[in-house]
Design brief:
This protein is α+β, with helices and mostly antiparallel strands. It has 5 helices and 5 strands; from the N terminus they run ααβααββββα. Strands 1, 2, 3, 4 and 5 form a 5-stranded mixed beta sheet that branches. The chain is globular.
């Protein structure tokens, strides 16, 4: 009975996380973003924080924000000073972690990057989201 319940729980978690995948390769993430017609979310962290990155914890605690980000962006997590290949001149930041939102076709930023503690602060990410995707309020004339 316990094993069946555990299996069901794991299947539910897999179903909830469908389509919510972090890429580890910049090139594969960029290709996926172009194919899916989404923007690119690049999260640059120190090599030693790759598995325990603060934004990952934030998104685990905030499923609404996680869902919205994965719906609009293809996310890639990169370790600074690692051997992984990415255009370092685009993603240079003296303070890590850093969060970049990019147009994958032109490889230009959609907004200034967030770096340091604000790169994983839910309020800063929400504010960045509001600047990129402002909520349109209906005008009184459209009623």
């Amino acid at each position: 009975m316990g094993r069946r319940l555990l299996t069901l729980w794991i299947l539910c978690l897999l179903g909830l996380s469908a389509g919510e995948r972090w890429y580890g390769s910049y090139q594969k993430a960029r290709e996926a973003a172009l194919r899916e017609k989404k923007d690119l979310l690049v999260y640059l962290v120190p090599l030693e924080d790759l598995r325990t990155a603060p934004l990952l914890k934030t998104l685990r605690k905030n499923p609404v924000l996680r869902h919205r980000l994965f719906a609009a962006f293809v996310p890639v997590i990169l370790a600074a000073k690692s051997r992984s290949r990415y255009p370092i001149e685009l993603y240079y930041s003296p303070v890590l972690p850093a969060l970049f939102l990019m147009d994958p076709a032109r490889e230009v930023p959609l907004a200034p990057p967030l770096s340091g503690p604000s790169a994983s602060d839910p309020k800063a990410v929400e504010e960045l989201w509001r600047r990129l995707f402002p909520v349109k309020t209906p005008s009184p004339l459209s009623r």
